[in-house]
Amino acid sequence: MNKNEVAFLLEEIATLLALKENSSVFEVRAYENAARALSSLDGDITQLVKEGKLKGTPGLGPTTIKRIEEMIETGSSPFLEELRTSTPAIKLEMMRIPGVGPKKINAIYDQLHVTTMSELEQACKDDKVAKLPGFGKKTQDKILQGIAFIAEHSNRFLYPIAEKEAARIREALATLPEIVRLEVAGSLRRKRETVKDIDMVLSIDDNAGSDVRRKIMDYFTSQPSVKAITGKGETKSSVVLNSGIAMDLRVVGDSQFPYTLHHFSGSREHHIPLRRRALSMNMTINDYGLFKTENGKEELVPCKDETDIYAALGMEYVVPELREDMGEIEAAAKHELPMLVQESDLRGVLHAHSTWSDGQNTIREMAEACMARGYSYLGLTDHSKAAAYAGGLNEDNLRRQWDEIDALNEEFAGRFLILKGSECDILRDGALDFDDAILAQLDFVVASIHSNFNLPPEEQTKRMLNAIANPYVDIIGHPTGRILLGRSGYTLDMEAIIEAAAAHGTCIEINSDPSRLDLDWRLVRKARDKGIKIPLGPDAHTLAGIDNMRYGIGAARKGWLRASDIPNTWEVQDVLHFFQTRRKR
Fold first, then answer.
1. Does any domain span residue 533?
2. Which of 102, 118, 247, 496 shows a CA-CA span of 20 to 30 A to 443?
């Protein structure tokens, strides 16, 4: 376990304690303080525990240190498991409703005695929740909206969770010598932001017998990460993994592999027009093959891989990320698909935090981690003063931070450059949290909304438009504010936002945190077609967070972005020139 994982478990303990009847506010606070204290500690947590260096750390008492040591030594916490087991299931479910904390959950549970989400939904519809002390109609409506959001996104998983599970199974299967080809398919292969299940396709020699298929399926269904087997055969087996995500494995002969992989990669929306094109050429396509009908006789069109399938249909190869019926069929038929950005095109980072605000690593550590990953610059964007909860900087601290950046840049000269930036809060009226005199001294500014999420659509849109009109706003950060599987975004007129950003030459980022991936890929292409530049911002608060860039690449490719559309694929002097030029304009 790393420091972040342990801190997360301490926060969960605090939450579950707060949900207990007659819980001690001091005990809850102790675990909250411990989580914060741990997050701000320097060094490897395992080493600190091993050397007994947690004792005496402000915010960590004997009991919380004991819990941390237990987590590090065993990888689990019996105390946390006991709390999970003893907490009513409905309370845990209600924790998923945005904006509903332990106090409100306990009030609903104690006074309305609901035991399921459907009972809570009915209680809201009957106006029972609104009548509880401290609630009201507005809170009740938000709870109803939260229940609807949870229902809509139930049984879905964030991309990294599904990717990790698939990689574990793929790595295990790859050890079997009988397997010829092995690929992940489905929405995971297409880099969708959330995934319902995992599809995997593998091939064996065309002449292999049933014993080979049975061996592979036995090995697959007996993996440690498999919680339940829901179907088992020689060509397809289905399981549920420990994470709760379902997975299908299909085994085919190697000559059939390209067609099966293509079919189960999807999407359905892509396949429908593709099949129409095939029919117009007297062909049919399915998971068994591509067939051409001549003189009333159907013959297989041999294809070594998916490239051959598209070529047989007179098309360029369509990469999985683009297979969403967003114009890729027509573009591929005309051989006009863009050369999509790749992770190797990235040159620097343009949204990251340090210990100056709510990051967990120093500027030096963040810069050195960027260098280790092959980047040549880091755009540092610690929070502004309005984000007090995140340790936002006032003007004096911002200037002190510049001194540190200047010293590091002098040390790194010729190797690496740290850009002076800020993730500056957009206030309720659309003004910025720093005045123009301060903003003008920064190399670039990311402007983001972190408060007043529930303004009426017209007011929220006007707020964002005002920010875009500020000449010192170079990038709009996480523009819709969504948290995948957690909350919907702000109610904004995104068409108007995109038009305004294009008119002012303002960038809109793809926030590459996998729980955000905001701007949504469906809007990315619209922004690109308006000439808007779209940086990828990892929103890194840790060294590991820098690697969020890879998730942003997936969203960028789904949005048809080329390297030229993304400022942080450019050399640093080109990036600085771009920001300076757009400000002058």
1. yes
2. 496
Number of domains in the chain: 4
DSSP 8-state class, residue 483: B
Residue with tokens 């610059």: 377
The CA distance from 186 to 201, in Å, is 10
- Give the position of tokens 């920064």: 442
pLDDT at 39: 73
Predicted local confidence at residue 36, as pLDDT: 84
**Is beta strand 417-425 parallel, antiparallel or unpaired with respect to 444-448?**
parallel
| Strand partners for 201 | 183, 250
Residue ranges in the chain modelled with pLDDT below 70: 1
Rounded CA separation 178/175 (Å): 9
Q: For residue 271, give its domain range.
A: 267-333
Residue 462 lies in a domain: yes
Helix (H, G, I), strand (E, B), or coil: what is residue 246? strand
350 and 494 inside one domain: yes
Length of the chain as a residue count: 585
H or E, element range at 181: strand 179-184
Return the structure tokens found at 70: 């237990």
Position 300 scores a pLDDT of 95
- Three-point CA angle 251, 257, 260, nearest 5°: 80
Tell me the C-alpha distance between 163 and 157, whole Å. Answer: 10
What token pair was written down for 4? 């972040």
pLDDT of 97 reads 86
**Omega within 30 of 0 (cis) for the link into 267:** yes
Helix axes 102-112, 3-19, angle to 10 degrees: 30
Shared-domain flag, residues 393 and 281? no
Q: Is residue 338 part of a domain?
A: no
**Which helix (DSSP H) or strand (DSSP E) does residue 154 occupy?**
none
The domain boundary residue, chosen from 306, 333, 360: 333
Predicted pLDDT of residue 150 = 80
CA distance 429 to 321: 38
CATH value at residue 406: 3.20.20.140
Examine the domain organization and report whether 251 and 287 are in the same domain.
Answer: no
Nearest to 32 by CA among 57, 59, 50: 59
Q: Cis check for the bond before 376: say yes or no (omega within 30 of 0).
A: no
The domain boundary residue, chosen from 215, 241, 262: 262
User: For residue 20, which phi and psi values (nearest 5 degrees)?
Assistant: -75, 150
Q: Which of 431, 446, 573 is nearest to 507 (CA)?
A: 446
Closest CA to 535 of 555, 509, 569, 557: 509
Residue 324, both tokens:
């969403």
The CATH number linked to 186 is 3.30.460.10
